[in-house]
């Protein structure tokens, strides 16, 4: 990678080389703009990374991706689809913990009718959904919105644990419009989720994604490396942006960035900015440039996560380790939020005779988990796996990664607040991207990066 001194002035400075920044930068570079990506870490990918430890291949952040339409189109544009690795077909089978045991998540309407996860009363309540009057979903939490449409039992038994899996969050605080925009639209368009789903099945909505869950060649860190290698010398690792200031028109306008890298510091001039850092950092950097936007970004809340990779001997488990993994409803009072059976999803993740599990702890349920020592985390994981999987052997702790700010927690009003924050930028050549913008999954972050690139390209 190049020294920044040789590129003191660019069209666009991209701050942050997580999936959002990498994707946005590639789009801009391919559209013919001179781009510099400044990333404080020494490796690209942000929270997305893969480690090889004692014969295991471990994801330190995200474990699988859903390739939604915009991500698929991006990968195709950049000839990167060849590296996608689909999860094994068994990944369709997911579990919830109920009374300490694994219960399959129902697949399809018939499964929903048969599942013991809902009482007869809860199932009958689901059938009333088409007759529930339209409400004010933009003013509701997920629990209020889905509780109104599907009944409180469906929220407690199904939606709550599902949101734990994606947001490590609390359905009583997450906003319906931010978390389930498609469901909110269905209610608005068709007056019911069922009618909305039927209508949508008859007309295509945007570019289609790929079915199922995916990883990438070499793990998800391999996807980050593939994007980084396309950027080549435009990517500057170990360069932390310390400050951004507007440049006077007399000096050509735009912005000047001050950055620090190990043993050096420097400045970079840019006509435009693509900020792809976590929201609090984007807020800090934007303060001198766009204080109103900065204030809105500073208010985005995050949930912490501790991700612990463990190896186990499947012969020492009462339950078969098969399928995607399990999620833990709040009432079960376990330390784990959930656990993914990674070596069942993708080949080559564990040595022969072992299984690799990714255990998630913390979230809104137990935020203090990030301060708990490794030994205590291991003890709690051991106890939970003994209870749920009937594990009779010691777990092999391979890797512990703490994320004090792992996943944004968009509340009621978040989408409108973010749109206002963007609107407050006026026609300034500044674009925002990241998991806090419009969806927390890898595919959403990536899409926010490509969208930000489009916005800038039309302004430059
Ligand atoms: C533990 C965990 C598990 C997850 N599991 C999944 C999953 O299975 N599937 C899924 O779809 N999603 C998952 N997610 C969510 C998803 O991984 C993230 O939302 C997404 O990868 C975030 O990408 P990003 O580019 O927005 O941000 P980040 O990855 O946070 O990247 C931001 C980058 O900005 C850099 N930066 C910050 N400040 C500066 C500065 N001043 N100067 C220069 N650089 C700076 C950071 O170093 C970082 O590299 C998970 C997240 C976590 C934390």
CATH class of the largest domain: Alpha Beta
Major sheet: 7 strands, mixed
The global form is globular
Strand content: 15-25%
> Which CATH architecture of the largest domain would you pick?
3-Layer(bba) Sandwich
Number of structural units classed as domains: 3
How much is the average pLDDT? 94
Distance between the termini: 26 Å
- Considering the protein shown, what is the CATH homologous superfamily of the largest domain? FAD/NAD(P)-binding domain
Rg over CA atoms: 23 Å
How would the blueprint of this fold be written?
Layout: E1 9-15, H1 19-30, E2 35-39, E3 50-53, E4 56-59, E5 65-66, H2 69-77, E6 84-86, E7 94-98, E8 101-104, H3 108-114, H4 120-127, H5 142-150, H6 152-167, H7 176-179, H8 181-190, H9 193-202, E9 213-216, H10 220-231, E10 235-237, E11 240-246, E12 255-261, E13 264-275, H11 279-286, H12 291-298, E14 302-312, E15 325-327, E16 336-341, H13 342-345, E17 355-362, H14 374-389, E18 396-408, H15 414-423, E19 430-432, H16 442-459
Parallel strand pairs: 1-2, 1-13, 2-10, 7-15, 13-19
Antiparallel strand pairs: 3-4, 5-9, 6-9, 7-8, 11-12, 12-13, 14-17, 14-18, 15-16, 16-17
Helix pairs in contact: 1-10, 1-16, 5-6, 8-9, 11-12, 12-15
The structure holds flavin-adenine dinucleotide (FAD).
Flavin-adenine dinucleotide binds near residues 305, 406 and 435.
């Amino acid at each position: 990678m190049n020294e920044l001194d040789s590129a003191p002035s660019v069209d666009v400075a991209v701050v942050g080389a997580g999936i959002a920044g990498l994707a946005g930068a590639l789009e801009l570079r391919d559209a013919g703009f001179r781009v510099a990506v400044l990333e404080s870490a020494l490796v690209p990918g942000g929270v997305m990374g893969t480690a090889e430890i004692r014969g295991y291949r471990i994801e330190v952040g995200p474990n699988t991706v859903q390739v939604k339409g915009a991500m698929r189109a991006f990968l195709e544009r950049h000839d990167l689809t060849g590296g996608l690795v689909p999860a094994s077909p068994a990944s369709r089978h997911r579990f919830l913990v109920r009374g300490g045991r694994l219960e399959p998540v129902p697949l399809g309407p018939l499964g929903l009718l048969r599942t013991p996860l809902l009482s007869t009363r809860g199932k009958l309540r689901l059938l009333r959904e088409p007759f529930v009057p339209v409400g004010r979903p933009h003013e509701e939490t997920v629990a209020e919105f889905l509780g109104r449409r599907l009944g409180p039992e469906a929220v407690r038994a199904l939606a709550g644990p599902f949101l734990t899996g994606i947001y490590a969050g609390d359905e009583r605080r997450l906003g319906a419009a931010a978390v389930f925009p498609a469901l909110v639209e269905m209610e608005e368009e068709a007056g019911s989720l069922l009618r909305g789903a039927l209508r949508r099945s008859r007309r295509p909505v945007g570019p289609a994604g790929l079915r199922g869950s995916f990883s990438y060649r070499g793990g998800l860190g391999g996807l980050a490396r593939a994007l980084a290698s396309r950027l080549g010398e435009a990517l500057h690792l170990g360069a932390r942006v310390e400050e951004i200031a507007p440049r006077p028109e007399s000096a050509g306008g735009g912005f000047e960035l001050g950055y620090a890298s190990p043993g050096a510091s420097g400045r970079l001039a840019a006509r435009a900015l693509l900020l792809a850092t976590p929201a609090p950092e984007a807020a800090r950097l934007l303060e001198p440039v766009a204080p109103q936007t900065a204030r809105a970004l500073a208010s985005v809340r995050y949930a912490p996560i501790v991700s612990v990779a463990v190896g186990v001997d499947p012969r020492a488990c009462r339950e078969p380790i098969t399928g995607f993994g399990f999620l833990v409803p709040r009432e079960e009072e376990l330390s784990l939020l959930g656990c993914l059976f990674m070596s069942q999803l993708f080949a080559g993740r564990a040595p022969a005779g072992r299984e690799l599990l990714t255990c998630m702890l913390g979230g809104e349920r137990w935020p203090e988990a990030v301060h708990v020592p490794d030994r205590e985390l291991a003890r709690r994981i051991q106890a939970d796996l003994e209870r749920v999987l009937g594990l009779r052997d010691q777990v092999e702790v391979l890797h512990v990664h703490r994320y004090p700010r792992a996943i944004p927690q968009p509340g009621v009003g978040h989408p409108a607040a973010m749109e206002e924050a963007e609107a407050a930028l006026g026609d300034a050549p500044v674009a925002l991207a990241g998991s806090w913008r419009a969806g927390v999954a890898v595919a959403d972050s990536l899409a926010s990066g490509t969208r930000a690139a489009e916005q800038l390209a039309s302004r430059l």
